[in-house]
Structure formats: structure tokens, C-alpha cells
């Protein structure tokens, strides 16, 4: 079991759930909880819950199952979970464990941060996207209409425990979606990491345990390092949103996965930077090459570019009525810009739409 040393984010990475109690002991919080509530979705319940429960030493364990999918990040599901917490007499001496992907982690983190003004939460991510990104850093949230994560908090988990073997239970397409977030780290922070992803693509797609461990540890370390410097997203942490502002509009309106939307969103950002001559065409081609290796989409269809732009204007990361975009400006480097003309943004969206 490997631990990422960090002041803000405690992350343990292993290839099984057997070391979970060791992680509890290392964080000095073992045997302090009067009850454990595990919240997961139907898919993870079917494939992993029993193995995880068997690894926990606790007298009282409750389970709560939510439907799989983004629709569960709603006020209605949030209220239902709160009522259940009250029903089972969950107290400030209890802990909630989020066992699942990004939806489960965001929702459960918000529940824990607001129940009785905040009780302990532990993140146990089971998808690649959650293991390398959303389970680390303390962002929680639920959606309201077309507004993604508009309701939420910054609330650090006691720790994040990652079992890379859980990635082998994922549907192939969901694993590929997670690779979009993995690739993102190379373009925002560590250009050499992209070479590893290219050279080892076959083994990564075969979900070789050693490769999985390496990419999860690499991305989690970068994320934890960035969050340590900017916990509440006042500056540096904003670069983690690369591809997300463009992507959220496509995700919501096209009904595609978050990872696919991030891939398309990063492509829009690269297209814009190329047009504005922030980058050279060779770098743009590198991005396209990596995405094609992992069969990630670069375009969308069926939605008017104006509608995508309207969703972007409501993005919570904007300020002073200006759209904040994270754009590539060099090898492994991005900058946050808010002075891009609306007409240019709409044109770029249109260029990434299938005819």
C-alpha cells in the first residue's frame, strides 16, 4: 500500500481492499466511530460491495444504494439520504463512506459536509475518473437543472482509499472515459507523462495492474500537490478545469459521459489556442494523437452550438459575467483566460460539431 504524503489530501493506493483498516490506523481514527454508513450505486453494489464490507472492522454497518448515473446528484436523492441518516440515528461520531465513482463521491461528500453541520467522510473511488481526480481535493456537489455542481462545498475526506483492481470491473467505455482525465494531467502539468501514456497504451488498455498503479499514483500526486497549494480554487487549482467549461455544455445537452465531454472540451480548447496562435500545430496534433490512441471523441453532434454556449455562460467558474477558459499555451502548460470573444468561442464550438 502506498501513501501520498500531503498536508491536505491523504491518499492510499493499493490493489485490494485488504489494507483499508491499515489506512484507518495510519490516520489515527480507527475504533472511533459508532456506526458506518456505506453509500454506493447499484452497479458497484452488484460487483464490489461484499468484498469491501468484508474488509471493514466495524460493529454497525449500514448500506444505502442509489441509482447509477448523474441523475442521482439531485436535491431529491440528497433529501432521501438525509432522511435515512436520521432514521438510523447517524451521529457526529459516525462516518459515511462513498464507495463508487464521481457521482457517488460528489453526492456523498455533500451529504457528509452538511449532515449535523459535518461528519467524517471517507472516499473509496471505484472508477478511473474518480481515482485520479474527483475523489481527491474535497470538492462536493449536486446539480440543479442544467447547472452542474452548482450546490456544493469544499470538504476534505478523512482520506481517500484507492483499489486499482476495482478498475478491472469497469465497462470498457467507462474506463476510456476516465482516460480523458488521465490525459488532462499531461497537458496541464507533466508533458513527459504523455509519452508514458503513448508508449504504454496497449498495456494500459489491457488494464495491466502495474500500469494502472502508475497512472493512478501519478495523477493523484499531481492533483494532491495542486490542491495543497490552492485548496479552495482561488488560483492554481483552476487549471484542473481544463476541458470542463466547454465540456459541461456538451455533457448536459448531448447526454454523454463526463469523460467523453472532457475529451471534446479539451479539443475545443486546443482548437481555440491553435487559432489564436497560443500553440503550434505540432502540439495540437499531439493532443489528437493521444486521444485517438484511447478512442476518445473529439466532436459532438445533434446540438446547436448556441445552446452549448448558453450552458457555458452559466458555469459556476465564471466571474464578472466573463467566461473563464483554461487554454493550452505550451508543452504541459495552460493559462486561465477570460478575454476571449464570445463570437470566437461559438465558432470553435461549431468547428467541433459533426455536420
TrEMBL record:
Q: Which domain of life is it from?
A: Bacteria
One Pfam family, please name it: DHQS_C
- Reactions performed catalytically: 7-phospho-2-dehydro-3-deoxy-D-arabino-heptonate = 3-dehydroquinate + phosphate
Primary localisation category: cytoplasm
Q: What class of enzyme is it?
A: lyase
Return the cofactor note field: Binds 1 divalent metal cation per subunit. Can use either Co(2+) or Zn(2+).
Enzyme Commission (EC) number: 4.2.3.4
Cofactors named for this entry? NAD(+); Zn(2+); Co(2+)
Do the record's keywords include DNA-binding? no
The subcellular localization recorded is: Cytoplasm
Kindly list the biological process annotations in GO that this record carries. amino acid biosynthetic process; aromatic amino acid family biosynthetic process; chorismate biosynthetic process
Listed under GO cellular component are: cytoplasm
> Does Amino-acid biosynthesis appear among the keywords?
yes
Q: Which residues form the 3-dehydroquinate synthase C-terminal domain?
A: 178-318
Physiological role: Catalyzes the conversion of 3-deoxy-D-arabino-heptulosonate 7-phosphate (DAHP) to dehydroquinate (DHQ).
Protein name as catalogued: 3-dehydroquinate synthase
